[in-house]
């Protein structure tokens, strides 16, 4: 028997008036994935996460967490699942610890016994008795993670967890996410920060205007752009002419004091010899794979 | 799938053994949240202070006490008439306001703080949250009412004496009996007050705005009283929630007149049950988009 995947969303649609915030979104997150959910602001990432957590009803489609639909099974569908959408929110008039005690009481299952450990993990032990109303944004963000850890989750949904953090806070948050993923927790990380997704995730879904534009492995996506080279020579005009004559070289373009073209490795080797024999010196030859950022803009702005 | 089976065993299995949290967990924490908020103390404080202010005003004024009000003429004969006068005045706006202060806020505050998503992504169902909040609201409301009547009785008795009370039928009852009838009357009075709480809860769910729900409840209460004061609409009076705040007076007759008491019960239910059902339906189905 194959266990149901941590997340399986099919054909999710959510409309607000005539605006379709989420348009036929399919997502499959497998156990152990650190899954990047990448899109510009307003792409429907948060709305999708809310549907996954049963906070809002899809107009069409279904979401299943470990095979359970929150619309059908209510809170039971969230067993083993934790996380937050947008910034985590707590009661400002109670202390951090008191807030955690409250959510732990609503979790049951010995969650209260994990409070100290969770506070320790997010480094809030010293401020736990202060009222949340006085917390900085970063502290609330960390308290949100602590609240999620109380559920001893197998799946963690994090919505832009580093947004609004200072550089140190962002680094600490990423280290923490890596550590949690290393413990075998499946993570869905929504983000609009390419670097963050490239650093943390092994699979991605890129969304724009409510639609999924790409879903799959991140290395595969990057590899689709392999075979592009940038070259600077002593005579770009002549080099471009030579390259253009070569049947296996395509998309030759000249600009910015460099020459770009597409070819496989064997062809590139032949081309360098041909250039040398023709008396053209090569200053530099660099394989240019696109960054996730370039791919992202290519997909979301086309 | 052994790699999968081990973590699956963890939290869920323990949760099944321990029993899932439900209404009780929500109720306990709703009470703790009320205790941590100023408005709770403003409401309870008003319930304690107003009878005291009434007694101080009586002491400062040597007249005969409020006229044209049930038991108004007897306040200096027996301190036990004081809580009854307070009940009569409290129905106009004070007790509906004290009730609405918390009932109108208890859902709207979650919207204001953005915390609905916090509590609805744990292991309790939405109806658990709704029921826990309703129970916490009723607990607060009944506590405020009990303090209001209790302070009036005790301090009124200490100042003007725990003397026999003249009933609305003109007979006199012993102090013990008077206290018992006051307690029974308070229970009757709690019914329309609970219905008022139910309306405030509904407005709290619908408006998602604490101030709108509190003011809306007061407007509702006052609108009903205006309807009650229009003589052309007298046929409506028996069905107005505001009128049910007088049902308790049935206990202060000899023999006890059960008709207004029974009417207060079913008319209050006529307001409370649909309002609560409507509020629950909205709460179960609503999209939690804030926060």
Q: What is this entry, summarized?
A:
The complex is a heterodimer of chains A (302) and B (291). By secondary structure, chain A is of the alpha/beta class.
Describe the structure.
The complex is a heterodimer of chains A (302) and B (291). By secondary structure, chain A is α/β, with parallel strands linked by helices. Chain A has two domains: 7-223, P-loop containing nucleotide triphosphate hydrolases (Rossmann fold, 3-Layer(aba) Sandwich); 228-301, Alpha-Beta Plaits (2-Layer Sandwich), CATH 3.30.70. Chain A has helices at residues 45-52, 70-73, 96-107, 115-121, 137-149, 167-182, 194-200, 218-223, 236-245, 265-277, 292-301; strands at 7-16, 19-29, 34-38, 60-65, 81-84, 155-159, 186-191, 203-208, 211-217, 228-233, 250-255, 258-262, 282-287. Chain A has a six-stranded mixed sheet, with helices on both faces. The longest helix of chain A is centred in the middle third of the chain and has 16 residues, at 167-182. The mean pLDDT of chain A is 91. Chain B has one domain (19-285). Chain B contains eleven helices and two strands. In chain B, strands 1-2 form a two-stranded antiparallel sheet. In chain B, a hairpin with a 5-residue loop joins strand 1 (165-166) and strand 2. In chain B, helix 2 (23-35) packs across helix 8 (126-160). Chains A and B meet through strand 5 and helix 3 of A and helix 1, helix 2 and helix 7 of B.
Helix content of chain A: 25-40%
Helix-strand makeup class of chain A? alpha/beta
User: What is the general shape of chain B?
Assistant: elongated
- Oligomeric state of the chains present here: heterodimer
Main β sheet profile of chain A: 6 strands, mixed
How many structural units, i.e. domains of chain B?
1
Mean pLDDT of chain B: 93
Q: For the record, give the distance between the C-alpha atoms at the N and C termini of chain A, rounded to a whole number.
A: 42 Å
Largest sheet report of chain B: 2 strands, antiparallel
Number of domains of chain A: 2
3D shape of chain A: elongated
* Helix share bin of chain B: 55-70%
Could you tell me the radius of gyration of chain A in angstroms? 24 Å
Low-confidence stretches of chain A: none
